[in-house]
Amino acid sequence: MRILSSITAAATLAALSGAAFAHTGSDTGIHHLDGMAQGFLHPFTGMDHLTAMIAIGIWSAMTARRIWAAPLSFAALLLAGALLGANGIQSIYVESMIAVSVLISGLLLATRTSLPTMAGSSLIGVFALFHGMAHGVELSHAQSIGGALAGMVAGTILLHIVGLAIGIFLLRTSTSWSRLIGISVSMLGIGLLSTAL
User: Fold this and answer.
1) pLDDT digits over 37-86, tens only?
2) What percent of the chain is predicted at pLDDT more than 70?
3) How far is CA 158 from CA 42, 53, 103, in A?
4) With bands split at pLDDT 50, 70 and 90, how would you rate the model's confidence at 187?
5) How confident is the model at residue 16 (pLDDT cuts 50, 70, 90)?
6) CA–CA separation, 101 and 19 (whole Å)
7) In this predicted model, what pLDDT tens digit does every residue of 116-145 receive, in sequence order?
8) Which residues, in sequence order, are CB contacts of 12 under 8 Å at separation 6+?
9) How far is the C-alpha of 79 from the C-alpha of 132, rounded, in Å?
10) Residue pair 107/181 in contact by the 8 Å Cβ criterion
11) 3 state SS for the chain
12) What are the backbone angles phi and psi of residue 184, rounded to the nearest 5°?
């Protein structure tokens, strides 16, 4: 119960973290808040990103000893990839790798494969770079790029937290649901990959 309470508290902090990034000035920081809100909502607007984040959270909660390792690796490398994308550095494999990330995260969840902490975090981190590049390009024209990227990371962390909470719940109730969720995510990944190739 304490873990679930901690996750709920963390989700609240992630959702409210935007205020910490707002700088006041003659415009009272409104443009920063607009950029932050734009970035925060961005991860929720793409089925690929939203699905992968929740699946990674569920998988981490159900298979990892350090349940925060893969989500934190994703958040850190998502930001690195977004900085690359916002500065015009892109890869021709972005869409394909995002689709692969959805497919693999679904398979990991469906099979409940447990990876060593470093291996799991590294794999998830590689996927994060490509998600970040795509987000960075899309957010590069935001009113405040710093606020937008901070919001993007906060929104992504919130999605991970939702996934972790679902995973903890499933561990205590019915683990068979995780397989069904994983299979559904994998099928989405296959569909995305077929359009990306």
Assistant:
1) 889 998 998 899 999 999 999 999 999 999 999 999 999 999 999 999 99
2) 83
3) 12, 9, 21
4) very high
5) very low
6) 31
7) 999 999 999 999 999 999 999 988 888 788
8) none
9) 6
10) no
11) CHHHHHHHHHHHHHHHCHHHHCCCCCCCCHHHHHHHHHHHHHHHCCHHHHHHHHHHHHHHHHHCCCCCHHHHHHHHHHHHHHHHHHCCCCCCCHHHHHHHHHHHHHHHHHHCCCCCHHHHHHHHHHHHHHHHHHHHHHHCCCCCHHHHHHHHHHHHHHHHHHHHHHHHHHHHCCCHHHHHHHHHHHHHHHHHHHHHC
12) -65, -45
Residue with tokens 């009113």: 143
Q: Specify whether the CB–CB gap between 91 and 42 falls below 8 A.
A: no
Packing angle, helices 30-41 and 145-172, rounded to 10: 40
Instruction: Decide if 87 contacts 172 (C-beta within 8 A).
Output: no
Better-scored residue on pLDDT, 140 or 11: 140
N-terminal to C-terminal alpha carbon distance within the chain: 45
What is the separation of C-alpha 112 from the centre of its chain, rounded to a whole number of angstroms? 19
**Residue the block writes with tokens 């990674």:** 56
Q: Which of 170, 146, 143 is nearest to 54 (CA)?
A: 170
